[in-house]
Specification:
The protein is of the alpha+beta class and 272 residues long. It has helices at 41-52, 69-77, 85-88, 93-100, 150-159, 164-170, and strands at residues 2-3, 10-11, 15-21, 24-33, 58-63, 81-83, 103-104, 107-121, 127-133, 138-140, 146-149, 177-185, 190-193, 196-199, 201-202, 211-226, 229-230, 232-236, 239-248, 251-258, 261-266.
């Protein structure tokens, strides 16, 4: 069961494979049908539309009776892998699947926080908004001493996974992009001291720390970069593998597929 990106509703997928490429997780969704006739374009388009609203990195479609030529063409335009049982009826079905993987399209999403906005509340319940704060702005604990900067708060939020929904939404883009982003934190940020979570305060100059931080909004630039890594297939004895190099943004990458595992790492620099 995978959650819909737009509604959160759980949708059934026949097979789900979770894996990772270096530090980047990805998810392969497999849909199968046992219909007596070859799968046609409408069914392929139905599956494509379904997985556009799911956190699927790569879609594989399997039909017992195969696929029509138009259905295969439509799947190819959407970079969807289609398989029929006869294509797996070989001495090495793993190699049959691997041979279908001809190109990888790694996608990197980078969030560059630039400034922040805070919603504050005092002891009397009054609120105020402080916009355009630099990431070096310090927030205080209840003692009034500087405790954490806004930049450090952004890093902590990212490490706790609070920015993952934003990243997953950006990963749906199918082209390079640079977009302004706004990441809101609707819960008051806390700092743990002496085993207890304590609120954070915003202090104006030398005035006492009387304004509690209620909500945060991080603003910055989101950079989406998509690359292409063509794969070459080889066999070494009983081991089938594929490899290739490509570029994402300013990074040269090398990909290796072996024994069902994908590894993507920085490509070694060429030496004379």
């Amino acid at each position: 069961m995978l959650p819909s990106i737009s509604t959160g509703e759980l949708r059934e997928v026949d097979v789900v494979i979770h894996a990772s490429a270096g530090p980047y997780p990805f998810l392969i969704g497999i849909e199968a049908t046992a219909r007596k006739r070859p799968a046609d374009t409408p069914w392929v388009e139905q599956m494509i539309a379904k997985h556009e609203d799911l956190p699927t990195s790569k879609l594989v479609l399997v039909c017992e009776a195969g696929f029509t030529a138009n259905a295969r063409c439509r799947a190819g335009r959407a970079q969807v892998v289609v398989l029929a049982p006869e294509e797996l009826d070989t001495a090495d079905p793993q190699q049959a699947v691997l041979a279908r993987l001809v190109t990888l399209w790694p996608k990197f999403v980078t969030l560059k926080a630039e400034q922040a906005q805070l919603l504050l509340r005092d002891a009397d319940g009054r609120t105020r908004v402080v916009p355009d704060l630099g990431l070096d702005t310090a927030l205080c604990g209840d003692s009034g001493d500087p405790t954490i900067t806004l930049g450090e708060l952004v890093v902590a939020s990212a490490e706790q996974g609070h920015l993952l929904p934003l990243v997953e939404e950006l990963r749906r883009l199918d082209h390079d992009a640079q977009l302004a982003f706004f990441a809101r934190g609707d819960q008051p940020p806390k700092i743990r001291r002496d085993g207890v979570e304590r609120p954070l305060y915003f202090q104006d100059g030398d005035r006492p720390a009387e304004w509690t931080v209620e909500k945060t909004q991080i603003e910055g630039l989101a950079v989406v970069e998509i690359g292409e890594i063509p794969l070459t297939h080889r066999r070494l004895g009983e081991i089938a593998f594929a490899y290739g190099t490509g570029r994402v943004g300013d990074q040269n990458l090398m990909a290796v597929v072996n024994d069902g595992k994908l590894t993507i790492r920085p490509a070694p620099s060429s030496t004379s």
